[in-house]
Every structure is written in C-alpha cells, then in structure tokens.
Design brief:
This protein is an alpha+beta fold. The protein is built from one helix and three strands; from the N terminus they run E-E-E-H. The chain starts with a strand and ends with a helix.
C-alpha cells in the first residue's frame, strides 16, 4: 500500500499515512481537529530490481554487441 503525505493548512501539522489507493483522502487534522488537511504531491520512491528492465537487460546487450562487431 502507498504512503501518502498530508499537511494541515490550519496548524501546519505534517504526517504520513499508509492507505489503500481506493480509500478516501483524510480531511480532519488529528492535532487541531479542523477539516483543513490536504494531501501533498510527492515523488514515488521505487527501485527496479531483477531482470526484465532496460538497465539490466537491454542496455548491456547493445554494448556487448557493438564490441563484437568491432572485433570482426
């Protein structure tokens, strides 16, 4: 499940919350109890691991193929 960041426009409280993508966004600040909580836009953090990705499969193959062509 993704981690969402929220900030209250009333008191400035910031928090992270694990929610399903289908869950409604939080509205009420847990600190000041006002309905001024807004979801922040942030970059997703992930790393491509294993085979099947450009960096691990295709990029190295093209370098190897060009080296073998030069030797011919």
């Amino acid at each position: 499940m993704p981690i969402y960041e929220y900030r209250c426009n009333g008191c400035g409280h910031e928090m992270e919350l694990i929610q399903r993508m289908s869950d409604d966004p939080m509205k009420d600040c847990p600190v000041c109890q006002e309905s001024k909580l807004k979801k922040l836009i942030s970059a997703a953090g992930f790393k491509l691991k294993g085979s099947g990705w450009y960096e691990t499969d295709f990029k190295n193959q093209s370098k190897n193929q060009s080296k073998t062509k030069d030797k011919s």
